[in-house]
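Hey all, quick one. A colleague (J.T.) asked me to put the pyridoxal-5'-phosphate job into the tracker so the inputs and the C-alpha cells live in one place instead of scattered across chat threads. No bug as far as I know, just bookkeeping. Sequence used:
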Amino acid sequence: MAHSSEKNTDICSSALNLIGNTPLVAFDRLWPGPGRILAKCEFMNPGGSVKDRSSLYMINAARDEGKLKPGHPVIEVTSGNQGCGLAVVCAVLGHPLTVTMPKGNSVQRAIHMEALGANCIRVPQVEGTYGNVTLADALAAEAEAVRITEETGAYYTNQFCNKMNSGSHYLSTGPEIWRQTGHRVDAFLDTVGTAGTFAGTAKFLKVVHPEVLCYVVEPVGSEPIKGEAITKPLHLLQGSGYGLVPDLFDYDHLDGTFSITDEEAVEYKQLIGEKEGLFVGYTSGANVAAAVKLLKSGVLPEDAWVVTLLNDTGLKYTPIPDDLK
Ligand SMILES: Cc1ncc(COP(=O)(O)O)c(C=O)c1O
C-alpha cells in the first residue's frame, strides 16, 4: 500500500512492488522468423526468478487466512529459486525464513537467500552430483523440511501442493501475457518443476483464448512413463524435470511435450546471451530451444506468436570454486 507522503511520487513502497509485471521481449535476432518468439523476463523479479510470484501470493494468502501470524517463522523446501523469492517476501514482511535445499542446487542461491536474512540448510545428495538434482535428492530435502516443521511449528508453504502457487500465475503471469501481446498468443511453453507456473498460466490463457496451444518442456530422460515417477533424471535444468507428474499439473491444459537435451539448453542459453543480450539460466535456454522446435514443426500458422519464460538469471549458475560445492 502506498504511504500517504508518496502521493505524486514514483516510489515503490517496498520490494514487493517489484514482483511481476516483467517485460516481454521479442527475440527477433535469435529467431528472425517465420513467426515470433516472445520471452518474458522473469529473471528481472527481485529474487532473480519466476518463483517470486508464487512466494508473494502464497505468503499473502496464508496471512489473509490467518494461517501465518505476523512475525511467525516460515519453512520451505526449494531448488533455490522458491527460497530466494520467499526470502524477498519474508524480509519485507518480517517473517524468519528457513529453507532446505539439496546440496546439488547451485550455491549462489543459498548465498542470495542468506544475504536476505534467510537460513538455508543444504541437504546432502542421495544420488545426484553438484549441478544435477534427482527426485530422491529433492525428497531428502523435503523430508528435512517436514521434520523442521514438526519440530518448530513454522508455517510450511509447501509449494508442491499449495494452490496459490499455480493461482499466482493464473492471477498474474497469464493476464500479463494476454495484455502484453495485445491478445495475440498462439502458443505457450514452459518447463515444469511443481507445475505452478505452467498450470496457472496455461489455465488462464485457455480461458481467454481456447485455441492457444500449451506445451511442457522436459529435459530428455525425465519424462514420467505412464505417470510413474522415475528417480534418476540427471540433467542441468535445476528446478524442473523431476520425473514425476506434480499434484498441481492438469492434463486438460497440455497440448504436447518437447524434450530438450542438456546440449540444446546450453546452446540456447548462450544464444540468448549473444543474440539478445540477456544472461539467463538453463531452463530459459530449454524453453527457447523448444520454442524454435515448435516454430519449425509446422504445427502453427506461419506468423504465429510463441510466448515462453526466461525463468531465472544466469548469475545463479556461474562457475564456483570446488570447496563451495
Ligand atoms: C529455473 C527454474 N525454472 C523452472 C522452474 C519450474 O517452475 P514451477 O515450479 O512453477 O514448475 C523452477 C522452479 O523452481 C526453476 O527454478
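Adding what we noticed when we looked at it: Residues 51-160 form a domain with the Rossmann fold fold (CATH 3.40.50.1100). DSSP finds eight helices and ten strands in the chain.
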